[in-house]
Amino acid sequence: MTRGRPDQRGAATVLTIAMAGVLLLVGAAATVVGAMVVAHRRAQAAADLAALAGAASLADPTAPSGGGRDPCAVAGQVAAANRARLRSCRIESADVLVEVVVTGPHWLGQVHDLTAAARAGPG
Q: Which residues are listed as membrane-spanning (predicted)?
């Protein structure tokens, strides 16, 4: 050993373990973000489809898809078929406004569910 120079054996191992930990943390965070994006897209698709089904039911209550039923009931069924829960539904003139909730990825401390809203009508 040279005088005045500390022994550096094992320093590369410590650095490698630290970098592997950082990469693992970044990978886990990216996975959570990706899962949240997918869940939000699923929520938006469910909201869009539910609003369209409700508007179709409202526009033609004798249609086979609506069967003369409440547009919000139809929207709720379509939302449930898309693995979402109808949070709210209201009718404003000829438009159907819905809000749905989809269970979010509950990983790494993320505990919130994702919501999406949509509006559909004849105009």
A: 12-39
Residue whose structure tokens are 């409440």: 70
Q: Where are the alpha helices (DSSP H) in 1-123?
A: 11-59, 71-81
Task: Supply the DSSP symbol for 68.
Answer: T
CA geometry: angle 41, 119, 42, nearest 5 deg: 15
Residue 43 near residue 101, CB atoms below 8 Å: yes
Q: How far apart are the first and last CA of the chain?
A: 83
Question: Domains of the chain: which residue ranges?
Answer: 11-120
Q: pLDDT tens, 67-111? A: 567 899 999 999 999 999 999 999 998 899 999 999 988 876 778
Single pTM value for the model: 0.75
Q: Which residue has the tokens 């505990």?
A: 111
Please check whether residue 89 is in contact with residue 19, taking contact to mean a CB–CB distance below 8 angstroms. no
Is the Cβ–Cβ distance between 86 and 102 less than 8 Å? Answer: no
Q: What is the spatial distance between Cα 68 and Cα 123, in angstroms, rounded to a whole number?
A: 21
